[in-house]
Design a protein that fits this description.
The protein is α/β, with parallel strands linked by helices and 527 residues long. It folds into 2 domains: 258 residues, Aldehyde Dehydrogenase, Chain A, domain 1; 179 residues, Aldehyde Dehydrogenase, Chain A, domain 2 (3-Layer(aba) Sandwich), CATH 3.40.309. The chain contains 15 helices and 21 strands. The strands form 4 sheets. The protein has a 7-stranded mixed sheet with strand order 2-1-9-8-7-10-11, sandwiched between helices. Strand 20 and strand 21 form a beta hairpin. Helix 2 crosses helix 6, helix 3 crosses helix 4 and helix 9 runs parallel beside helix 10. The two termini are 42 Å apart. The structure holds NADP nicotinamide-adenine-dinucleotide phosphate.
């Protein structure tokens, strides 16, 4: 398939006079073709189609939407090597990493298809009428969850497949019954076009209404703001910087009818090295840490950006071994020249704020290489300077040397909300870990024991969320099947005649789905 650079507005492919290029970050050269930039006319057309499709799409039997999601996965996989090659050219992410990401993308689409068939997400509850109840009768009350409406999805730069056009946010919204208007990330427009092709082919094959999907591309903040402000958009899903997330939250809040923004923004994912394990396994921990820190050139939202440990000989061994490990890791090219610039400035910022440089990785030959950096500060300095706890997006991390356990506690209390907090510990460390747990729970969406934060399993129990600024709404997750909840809301039907009830709340159909009858859990009847 040749790329055309056109926008996808429902079934229409549209070219606009305003164009922007894609770049290869490894060479700085522009890539063919030039891409059309969407303006307000394209936002208008995509939102009108999404709005028109909404009622038909959300009322499709769950099985139909499941088949649509599975068809998207099939078409993405069928695109084969050229999709991976294009993603590689636009992001400099290595091909094996992109292959893994493509598998994750297909698997999460299939996981949401299975979730649709399970019916758990419908949240069916029935409290039958009690006409004889004294002193007052009870009405017949039935509840289900329905889709919120069209969702604006922002593709993330650091996951061009798994968190972009057909990524986790899109899969969750489409599963919930929400048409999506995607604002593609301007750093990988060709990859976005390939995936948009797969979605439109799947929509045609499975008979989805026009308007279930549109892709708008374009650089600059205006497009995302216009899309978020459109009255037909009912929710926003975003992954990126805190500044952009906050800007979109502001636009959404200022609308005449404000809407939820599910933004995943900024997290430094602190890792606590407990005294027991640091005494016995410092070198192993340092090697594992260096691998986690430099995975995908540190461009992971779960990158271990802060290490907390008690000042000790074990910590010194850890720092020495980390220096050796980082020196041996070949640096990769970062996603964009802008991200590389921000990273370089972030490293300088740490130095300017008094952090001691412990180790630097190799510089690398190509353009925009992300050279690893490890810093250290005493806890007292860290506690005095809030800016030291801010995210530096890339392979940089700060070891905070604590004199006492009380200092570790004080730092945890000072932390902003995080996607993850990790503890490395052995049995002797358990009482200390037990004592820290209530504070850790208040701060993070996922707490890890003896593991590193990078690598997020897509499953039912995963939480990829956390209090602000990790996300804009710590009650949800953007990874895993629970992510569908963000795009649903409950509706109660009181005293409805059977024929007027939504299908799944009618007596015969209800048995096919898990539900609560008068508060009691009932499983779906097989068959
Ligand atoms: P970004 O700047 O947050 O941009 C993400 C998306 O939001 C892009 O489509 C961008 O469009 C749009 N956008 C940015 N500012 C906006 C605004 N004020 N109003 C409306 N839309 C806006 O993220 P990025 O381009 O991926 O990388 C830039 C920095 O973000 C990185 O250096 C890093 O610090 C951070 N980042 C963090 C994570 C994480 O997981 N924590 C992930 C990715 C990036 P345009 O680019 O067209 O303006």
């Amino acid at each position: 398939m040749a790329l055309t650079g056109e926008l996808f507005i429902g079934r229409e492919r549209r070219e606009t006079p305003r164009k922007f290029p894609a770049f290869d970050p490894a060479s700085g050269r522009s890539l063919e073709p030039a891409f059309s930039a969407a303006g307000s006319a394209e936002v208008e057309a995509a939102c009108a189609l999404a709005h028109a499709a909404f009622d038909a799409y959300r009322e499709l039997p769950p099985q139909r939407r499941a088949l649509f999601l599975e068809a998207i996965a099939k078409h993405i996989l069928a695109q084969g090597e050229p999709l991976l090659q294009r993603a590689h050219s636009e992001t400099a992410l290595p091909l094996p990493r992109l292959e893994g990401e493509r598998a994750r993308t297909a698997n999460q689409l299939r996981l949401f298809a299975a979730e649709l068939r399970s019916g758990e997400w419908l949240g069916l509850r029935v409290d039958p009428a009690m006409p004889q109840r004294q002193p007052a009768p009870r009405a017949d009350l039935r509840q289900r969850k329905i889709a919120l409406g069209p969702v604006a999805v922002f593709g993330a730069s650091n996951f061009p497949l798994a968190f972009s056009v057909a990524g986790g946010d899109s899969a969750a919204a489409l599963a919930a019954g929400c048409p999506i208007v995607v604002k593609g990330h301007p750093a990988h427009p060709g990859t976005s076009e390939w995936v948009a092709q797969a979605i439109t082919a799947a929509a045609a094959e499975t008979g989805m209404p026009e308007g279930v999907f549109s892709l708008l591309n374009g650089p600059g903040t205006e497009l995302g703001a216009t899309l978020t402000a459109d009255p037909r958009i009912r929710a926003v899903a975003f992954t990126g910087s805190r500044a952009a997330g906050l800007a979109l939250m502001g636009v959404a809040a200022r609308r005449p009818e404000p809407i939820p923004v599910f933004a995943e923004m900024s997290s430094v994912n602190p890792v606590i090295l407990m005294p027991g394990v640091l005494g016995s396994s410092a070198e192993r921990l340092a090697r594992e840490f260096a691998a986690s820190l430099t995975q995908s050139v540190g461009q992971m939202c779960t990158n271990p950006g802060i290490i907390l440990a008690l000042h000790s000989p074990g910590l010194q061994t850890f720092l020495d071994a980390a220096r050796t490990a980082l020196a041996n890791i070949t640096p990769g090219v970062m996603l964009t020249a802008g991200i590389h610039r921000n990273y370089t400035q972030g490293v300088e910022h740490m130095l300017a704020h008094g952090a001691e440089l412990i180790a630097r990785g190799e510089a690398g030959d190509a353009e925009n290489c992300g050279r690893a950096a490890l810093f250290s500060v005493p806890a007292a300095t860290f506690l005095e300077d809030r800016e030291l706890s801010e995210e530096t997006f890339g392979p940089a991390s700060l070891v905070v040397r604590c004199a006492t356990v009380a200092e570790i506690r004080r730092i945890i209390e000072r932390l902003e909300g995080q996607l993850t907090l990790a503890l490395h510990m052995d049995e002797a460390d358990q009482p200390l870990a037990h004592g820290l747990l209530p504070a850790l729970e208040r701060k993070a969406g996922r707490i890890i024991v003896n593991g590193w934060p990078t690598g997020v399993e897509v499953c039912h129990a995963m939480v990829h969320g956390g209090p602000f600024p990790a996300t804009s709404d710590g009650r949800s997750t953007s990874v895993g099947t629970l992510a569908i909840e963000r795009f649903l809301r409950p509706v109660c039907y009181q005293d409805f005649p059977e024929a007027l009830l939504p299908l799944e709340l009618r007596a015969a159909e209800l048995l096919r789905w898990p539900h609560r009858l008068d508060g009691e859990r009932r499983l779906a009847k097989p068959g």
